[in-house]
Amino acid sequence: MKEVVEALAEVVERAREEFDKKDASREEALRLCREVTRNSAKAIKHAHRGEWEEAEGTLKAAGEFLAHVKRILKPYPELLYSGFVQDAEREYSEAALTLSLVRGKSPPTPEELGVEVTSYLNGLAEAMGELRRHVVDKLRAGLPPQECEPLISLMDEVYYLLVGLDYPEAMLQGLRRRVDILRGLIEKTRSDVASAAMQRELEEHLRRIRREAEESGKEPGA
């Protein structure tokens, strides 16, 4: 009996050592994933402010943190695919795609970013929300509404690309819900642009009336 217990104790001790290493790797990976998320959010914030150099720098930092996560968790695939890494990949993808799309550049591929394709597609869906914010910011800054149409058309195209992915939720990891939200964002953005166009036309009409009134009130020969 003693030999049996000793043999089992040895197995448990080896397991404890393995669990300790795995748990340490998990804690470090979680910390790094938080850095990925934080830097991705900062990159988007810089992008909306037009601070492109800062945006690129923080995006690069996010990518480096994510690559470190992959190296740490490579021996533990059950942790690598447990969910929190995919969340970080989604945030990083969203930031990278936002930086490209608001400037009209070709988007990076999942392979170039080093992320799973499902994380990439979920990030793409969420990046459309950032495009909406970009449109609204431009309207507030006085951009002619018609100049926002290319971005809205892009949002439309992305919606139709994603809505056709009819697969189980276990494979899509929340994509269907994000696509449903995207449809509403597009309609809301179109409404905002239409309202801005009407407001612009009204202001121009009032300026024209005021100008005509001022001109008609002038003395002949004045």
Write up what this structure looks like:
This protein is 81% helix and 0% strand. The protein is mainly α and 222 residues long. α1 runs parallel beside α4 and α7 (149-163) packs antiparallel against α9.
**Can you tell me the CATH architecture of the largest domain?**
Up-down Bundle
Total helices: the number is 9
CATH class value of the largest domain: Mainly Alpha
Strand and helix order: HHHHHHHHH
Say what the CATH topology of the largest domain is: Methane Monooxygenase Hydroxylase, Chain G, domain 1
How many domains in all? 2
Number of strands: 0
Radius of gyration from the alpha-carbon trace, in angstroms: 26 Å
Low-confidence stretches: none
Q: Give the N-to-C terminal Cα separation.
A: 118 Å
Estimate the global geometry from the Cα principal axes.
Answer: elongated
